[in-house]
Write a structure and sequence with these properties.
Layout lengths: L8 E5 L2 E5 L12 E5 L4 E5 L22 E7 L2 E7 L5 E5 L4 E4 L9 E6 L2 E5 L5 E5 L14 E2 L4 H8 L14 H6 L4 E5 L2 E10 L2 E13 L6 E14 L21
Antiparallel strand pairs: 1-2, 2-3, 3-4, 5-6, 6-7, 7-8, 9-10, 10-11, 11-12, 13-14, 14-15, 15-16
C-alpha cells in the first residue's frame, strides 16, 4: 500500500478490496482510496473525482481518527462502502462512481460492533442487546437519523452477554480506558444469513471464547426482526493463569468460509 493506515475502513466490492481512511494527517489529499486486486495481486490508487461539494466535507472527517466500524451496503442496486469514526461521523464511498459523501451520523458510542447481514446493519450495546437498522438509513436522504431497533427473542442470551466485557489487551500493552470504551464487548459476524456472536466467559477459572449461531426472521406484520439461537457453545479456551490475562480477551476479526 502507498499509505500507512491504522483502523481504516475496508470493504469488498466485485471481488476487490477497497481501503479508505485511517490516515493521521487531516488533509483531504491524504484520503486516497487504495484497492487490492486478488487476481493480479496488485495495489492501485483510485481518484475520487468528481469531488462532492465543500459543504459535504466537514473538517472533522479528516481529523486523525480511528474507524472502528465499516462494511458494505447496497442502496438502489449500488454497492457502497461505509465508515464510522469514533466521533460518530458516517461517510459512504461508491466504487462504481468513485464518489464519497457524508451520511447520517450516529453519535451514540454505546452502539458498537457493526456488521451487515442481508443489507441490514446490526450492532451491539454494553447491556447485551443486539440492535438493527436498515442499510438505507445511512444515507442523509433517509430523514436525518438512523432508527435502531432491538432484535427480539434473545433475552436469555443477553444474560450471558452481560457478563462479558472484552477489552483491547495484549502482552506488554497497558489497556486504555479510551480504547476500552470505543471497542465492543462482543463480536458480530455471520455464516450465510445467520448471525454469529462471539464473547468471552469465565469458566472454571479459565477464559473461554463462546459462540452462538442465531437465525434471523423478519415478521411481515410488525416489521420486527426476531432471533433464534440455533446453538451456543465454547469454541476455544485460553489455558493460561488468570493473573497473566487479567483484562479478558479481545476478539478482533471473524471470517466465515465454505469447505
Amino acid at each position: 500500500m502507498m499509505l500507512a493506515r491504522a483502523c481504516a475502513a475496508v470493504g469488498v466490492v466485485d471481488g476487490k478490496i477497497y481501503v479508505v481512511g485511517g490516515v493521521k494527517e487531516p488533509n483531504p489529499r491524504k484520503w486516497v482510496v487504495e484497492v487490492f486486486d486478488p487476481k493480479r495481486q496488485t495495489w492501485s490508487t483510485l481518484s475520487t473525482q468528481p469531488q462532492p461539494q465543500p459543504q459535504t466535507q466537514p473538517d472533522d472527517l479528516y481529523s486523525p481518527s480511528l474507524m472502528p466500524e465499516s462494511g458494505v451496503i447496497e442502496v438502489e442496486k449500488t454497492k457502497k462502502i461505509f465508515g464510522l469514526n469514533e466521533k460518530g461521523n458516517v461517510w459512504l464511498y461508491t466504487p462504481s462512481q468513485r464518489i464519497w459523501k457524508t451520511g447520517n451520523s450516529d453519535t451514540n458510542k454505546l452502539r458498537k460492533g457493526w456488521h451487515v447481514i442481508d443489507n441490514v446493519i446490526y450492532s451491539c450495546v454494553a447491556g447485551g442487546w443486539i440492535l438493527w437498522c436498515e442499510a438505507s438509513e445511512l444515507e442523509e436522504s433517509a430523514g436525518g437519523e438512523m432508527n435502531w431497533r432491538q432484535v427480539m427473542g434473545l433475552e436469555d442470551l443477553r444474560v450471558a452477554l452481560c457478563a462479558s466485557r472484552v477489552v483491547n489487551y495484549s502482552r506488554g500493552f497497558t489497556p486504555s480506558e479510551y480504547l476500552d470504551d470505543m471497542l465492543p464487548g462482543h463480536k458480530l459476524s455471520n455464516s450465510g444469513p445467520n448471525m454469529l456472536l462471539f464473547w468471552d466467559c469465565l469458566a472454571d477459572w479459565k477464559w473461554e471464547i463462546r459462540c452462538a449461531e442465531i437465525s434471523l426472521q423478519r415478521h411481515k406484520g410488525t416489521g420486527e426482526i426476531w432471533g433464534t439461537v440455533e446453538w451456543s457453545e465454547a469454541v476455544t479456551r485460553i489455558d493460561r493463569p488468570l493473573d497473566q490475562y487479567p483484562y479478558h480477551c479481545k476478539i478482533l476479526y471473524s471470517q466465515s468460509f465454505n469447505l
